[in-house]
Amino acid sequence: MSAPAVPAVPTAVLDDVRRRLAGSVGDLTPHRVAEALRASGSPVGDATVLAVHDLLRRDVLGAGPLEELLRLPDVTDVLVNGPDDVWIDRGAGLERAAVSFPDDAAVRRLAQRLAASAGRRLDDATPHADVRLPDGTRFHAVLAPVARSGTVVSLRVPRGRVWTLPELVAAGAVPPDGAFLLEEVVDSRCAFLVTGGTGTGKTSVLSALLSLVDAGERIVLVEDASELRPEHPHVVAMESRPPNIEGAGEITLQTLVRQALRMRPDRLVVGEVRGAEVVDLLAALNTGHGGGCGTLHANSAADVPARIEALSLAAGLPREAAHSQLAAALDVVIHLGRGRDGRRRVLELGVPERDASGMVVLRTAVTFEADRVVRGPAASTLAARLGSAVP
Hints:
By secondary structure, the chain is of the alpha/beta class. It is built from 13 helices and 15 strands.
């Protein structure tokens, strides 16, 4: 015998019950829902009461309709582009989810509640928010009408535990010989950047590499939003802070990098280099802080020098000085991307070198193709920096 169908609840009924419950004090219980339904003149069957109670409970607890998506195995991102346009990423590219909201007002309520849970304001005066939720999920939202399709929500889900390098190999993200090279980058205390586009797995790869650092070393992490969680016994993590509603209390990444230098780091790590902190990081790597690292958004490995140049110029560092600092500070670039199948992979290791004009260019040392490593023109330079042969 099949279970009875859950009745559809009209939006007008939900809104009326919600208003009535908000006007009185008490917990959200089926009994109070039934009373609100009777007061509104709506049918009060057990199935209707439970359906309304469940919908309202999801409205005020967790991530509402998105909660079931966040709990799916391997989900890294949940994206809402409007009430009827929800997507997820499970590591093989975006796929549409069979979840929707009644209307944009429901998406807006969820976004405002999630922002409030992290102590941030989200309304018409401040129509966007970028915060880390109490469970570690990275939350970003833009309200309509700034977002023309309706309120847009992006949730980046932290992995329950850190990827290990063998797991990345098993997942096809790194070939076995490539894993050997990545281990050598860490062991040789090279200064390196993990680069790639949005959602290519930079944080996962960097966490896996930091987990390889010798247990006797002190890692100091500086991040905009706490995402790196290396399996290491000595990690000090610091997180920047945006200004409050009054515009006070901001703590920038640049400030934290400077503080980190006074904390005796064996490895200084900037979770994402995207602003003026690049100048302090380059300076730190040029003053004896070997093995420092971070992530950087870049479309290709070859674009990394231009990206760092642009960030440095915006911070007031002249072009020639930026390239001089970069040439002396950075040893290796580990570039990630997505294959044609949508899966995240390490694509290339490059080394920065000066060209005839004195500017830094990135030369390819090796590329990773399926299960093999292909030597590039700068393979011998990489071998010299690692102190070991390149496969």
